[in-house]
Amino acid sequence: MSHQLRHSESRRFVLPFVGSLSILASAVVAQSTESGSETALDVDALSALSGRPVLDVTLGIWFPRLEGTIDIGPNGTELDVGDDLSVDDSQAIFNGEARVESGRWEFLLGGYVANASGNATLSGPARIGGLLAPAGTMVDSSIDVWSITGEIAYSIFTPFRDRRFAWSDPVDRSKGNRTSDGRPIIDLRLEVLFGTRFLNLEQEYELAGVGTVSTNNTWVSPYLGVGIELDWDSRESLGFLNRIEFDVTAGWGPAFGGGNSSLTIRVDGAFYVTRDLALTLGYRLNDFDLEREETAFNGGLQGLFAGVRYTW
Q1: Opening angle at CA 126, ends 123 and 128, nearest 5
Q2: In this structure, what are the phi and psi dihedrals at residue 72, rounded to the nearest 5 degrees?
Q3: Rounded distance, CA 142 to CA 17, Å?
Q4: Neighbours of 235 (CB within 10 A)
Q5: pLDDT category, 138, cuts 50, 70, 90?
Q6: Backbone dihedral region of 184: left (phi > 0), alpha (psi from -120 to 50 degrees) or beta?
Q7: What is the Cα–Cα distance from 47 to 300, expressed in whole angstroms?
Q8: Integer CA distances (angstroms), 16 to 12, 21, 154, 302, 306, in order
Q9: How high is the pLDDT of residue 30?
Q10: Who contacts 41 (Cβ-Cβ below 8 Å, separation ≥6)?
Q11: What does the alpha-carbon distance between residue 279 and residue 293 come to, in Å, rounded to a whole number?
Q12: Residues 76, 114: contact at Cβ < 8 Å?
């Protein structure tokens, strides 16, 4: 699958989801405004309470498929990891994330380890790592990827808070947007973010009757991005869920150490069955275009995500 096609598929998945967040926010607030009289609340105290640091940990299973092309060694043959090497089966791997939120700041740390392997017969002659394999050669392939990501985000626009921007004068926007116990019904945040991804790619190809080729390289990719997050206190609307949280994040940046670039997309929906415990469903894309010493990998991992989140 081409680099452009993978990005096109990601946009078709993410953009309609982002647009629906603003529609949902407007509808819920409109419904809340019509819901009768409100109890007098200490808005300043509630704002201070909502600014306390919050830690949440998400433990989940990611179901990615490896996609892309490899090209190893001088004058290497470009091979597709699916069509040529059969290393594109879906996996089930652990993906953990920890996040701290304090005021407008948010800090995230996450990572994963993915192992893909497969067997295939070359449909034509191929040069891999300086070895020439004729058509019909059996190839036993193994591609391992591990990644660690650190990220800092800042909420630049919060239309339902007393300060829409950090530099804005405070205005009481709580009317129609508070539950009976004073919690905000809707909180929408638009974020800018900076992150760094450490990515290791280890490859091994056993060419029957020819030899074995292996590589092991690490890249560092700082990236900039944007995000949108919507929190909805759904107790008075749905009853069976405490709150629902939607989060979409995208970041792009160069890959140092001989690489070109990396792209990260996260889409999450967290459904809180209690105030602290949530079930999460989402999507992850980690796309990378990497090169080093006449070795290139242009592809990535993408798939659905499911997990459990606990908030302190």
Answers
A1: 135
A2: -120, 130
A3: 35
A4: 18
A5: very high
A6: beta
A7: 42
A8: 7, 9, 23, 18, 20
A9: 46
A10: 174, 178, 182
A11: 44
A12: no
Residue 60 · residue 305 · CB < 8 Å: yes
CB 10 within 8 A of CB 250: no
DSSP state of 11: H
Q: E strands, 163-260, where?
A: 186-207, 211-233, 243-254
**Three-class secondary structure of residue 74 per DSSP:** coil
- Residue identified by tokens 């800042």 is 154
Whether this model's pTM surpasses 0.85: no
| Structure confidence at residue 20 (pLDDT) | 53
pLDDT digits (tens, 9 = 90+) for 173-230: 777 788 877 788 999 999 999 999 999 999 999 999 999 999 999 999 999 999 999 9
Q: How far apart are CA 295 and CA 68, in angstroms?
A: 14
SS3 of 47, please?
helix
Contact 194, 223 (CB under 8 A): yes
Q: Which of 33-47, 189-203, 235-249, 274-288 has the lowest mean pLDDT?
A: 33-47
Q: Hey, where are the domains in the chain? A: 3-311
Q: What is the dihedral of CA 288, 131, 126, 70, to 10 degrees?
A: 0
Pick the CATH number of 3-311 from 2.60.60, 2.60.40, 2.50.20, 2.40.128: 2.40.128
Q: Of all helices (H) and strands (E), which one includes residue 163?
A: none
- For 265-285, write each residue's pLDDT tens digit: 999 999 999 999 999 999 999
